Amino acid sequence: MLDRLPHLIDPISFADKQRTLQGQIPLTKLSRLADVLLHNNGQVEIDLSFSKEGRLSVVRGTIRANLDLECRTCLEALVLPVDIQVNLAVVKSMEQAERLSGEYEPLMIEDEKIPLHELVEDELLLVLPDFPRHAEECKPYKHSTEEIKPAANNVQQSQSNNPFSVLAKLKNIGD
Ligand SMILES: [Zn+2]
Fold first, then answer.
1. How far is the CA of 36 from the centre of ligand 1 (A)?
2. How would you class 151 by CB atoms within 10 Å of its CB: exposed for 0-12, middle for 13-18, buried for 19 or more?
3. Contact 48, 57 (CB under 8 A)
């Protein structure tokens, strides 16, 4: 079993010592993320290495999780597998951030120590889609059409697929 993950980390000191953090953070700890999740009973798996790149303190590694979101089209559950490649460089000012090469994202720190789970949460929030929806077609609607307002560009498609419009046509032929 690996060491417990620390609550607070000092990225610059960790980089000096070339520390590695591996382990899991429960999603329940990520309160900002909880607002957009259907369930937060999973874990975020992290594998982060701190090192020096010249004078820069950098953090590299991966953040992985399966996030349970709600599909905005059908309102059913949608599991979004997230696999983030972390490439952060510690900066203390906007000027420093702007001087970074494109290889790194800035990790802005004001105090020496930052909560590890906030770093992880920030990275997850960055990759979260604004409008999560199933990559493949959604399952047939379980709700009545009154409850669902599909996005404008899906309206036409859902109307042409609507079995009731076919029934309506058959009925007209019968008359
Ligand atoms: Zn869907």
1. 16
2. exposed
3. no
* CA 164 / ligand 1 centre spacing (Å): 21
How far is ligand 1, taken at its centre, from the CA of residue 82, in Å? 18
| DSSP assignment letter at 84 | E
Cα 116 versus chain centre, distance: 16
Cβ-based neighbour number of residue 12 at 10 Å: 17
Largest CA distance in the chain: 83
The torsion angle over the Cα atoms of residues 6, 35, 59 and 101, rounded to 10 degrees, is -160
pLDDT in tens, the chain (175 residues): 445 899 999 999 999 999 999 999 999 999 999 888 998 889 999 999 999 999 999 999 999 999 999 999 999 999 999 999 999 999 999 999 999 988 999 999 988 899 999 999 999 999 999 899 998 888 765 554 444 445 544 444 444 455 554 455 555 554 4
Round to whole Å and give the CA distance between 147 and 31.
29
Ligand 1 ion: nearby residues, β-carbon < 5 Å: 71, 73-74, 134, 138
